[in-house]
Specification:
With 256 residues, this protein is an alpha/beta fold. The chain has a single domain (6-254), classed as Rossmann fold, CATH 3.40.50.150. It has helices at 20-30, 33-37, 40-56, 74-79, 91-100, 138-147, 183-192, 221-240, and strands at 6-8, 62-66, 83-88, 106-110, 123-128, 149-160, 178-180, 196-197, 201-203, 248-254. Helix 6 links the parallel strand 5 (123-128) and strand 6 (149-160).
């Protein structure tokens, strides 16, 4: 792994993917999933990613969502009439998604991203947004996701960028596994899984450098105004600033 890739666990030691404390963390945050996604910065990410998904995924594709949480990425996939299978290892997260998207043609399942043998060679697209960092063995999970693709299928992954200034000195919450990547190490992870990666993309250059309170309900008018102004210039920044300076990295890779 690239020397800039970092790992944080509750006590500095490796944890098992079934770790009770890790599961308890996701059970605790599940109920707030959609409230957290309905904040200005998160809405920006969803808009950008939805646009990219519409560009990258063909209508009617068979799509596997890994580490789906409540499924903020599902909207554009439904618009494209994709055949959606959505998995997460947290039963509470799966239930949040199932309730939110009730009545939609989605197959939901509780499953571990490291163990996807039942999904082998089945999907045109495997999509894993903002979840790879929280897998205990990212390399094993990347290989499992790659094996779920048909030949010519595409893996789309987003990851927190360990090189972003907001990650310097960050300490993960107790019981919360977290591995970070930079563009080089994320690309290498895909190559090691037998995939052909495209150039990395970046999302959110400046927004995450602002005080967290500016992005929450109750922010003062001046704070909200400043945040909106920065959100407006983010699309321009993505065109002129290297992905190395982005908070989130987007990887698209093809299975030969």
């Amino acid at each position: 792994m690239d020397p800039q890739a970092t790992t944080a666990t509750r006590d500095g030691a490796p944890t098992d993917s079934k770790d009770a404390k890790d599961r308890a963390y996701y059970a605790r945050i599940a109920k707030d999933y959609f409230r957290r996604q309905d904040q200005p910065i998160q809405r920006l990410s969803t808009r950008i990613e939805s646009s990219w998904l519409r560009e990258q995924i063909r209508p009617g594709s068979r799509v596997l969502l890994v580490g789906v949480g409540g499924g903020r990425e599902i909207g554009p996939l439904l618009d494209l009439e994709c055949q959606i299978t959505a998995i997460d290892y947290s039963p509470e997260m799966v239930e949040v998604g199932r309730v939110h998207w009730e009545g939609r043609p989605i197959e939901w399942a509780v499953a571990d991203a490291h163990q996807l043998a039942e999904y082998a060679d089945r999907f045109d697209v495997v999509l894993c947004l903002a979840a790879l960092n929280y897998f205990v063995e990212p390399g094993k999970a990347m290989e499992a996701m790659a094996s779920s693709l048909v030949s010519g299928g595409r893996l789309i992954v987003s990851s927190i960028n360990g090189s972003h200034r907001t990650e310097h000195g960050y300490t993960a919450p107790a019981g919360h596994h977290r591995t970070l990547f930079n563009p080089k190490s994320l690309t290498r992870l895909a190559e090691d899984a037998g995939l052909r990666p495209e150039p990395i993309r970046g999302i959110r250059i400046l927004t995450d450098c602002l005080p967290v309170a500016w992005n929450r309900p109750g922010a003062k008018r001046l704070q909200s105004t400043a945040l909106r102004a920065i959100l407006l210039i983010e699309p321009l920044l993505r065109r002129i600033v290297s992905p190395e300076h982005a908070k989130f990295l987007w990887l698209i890779a093809t299975r030969p």
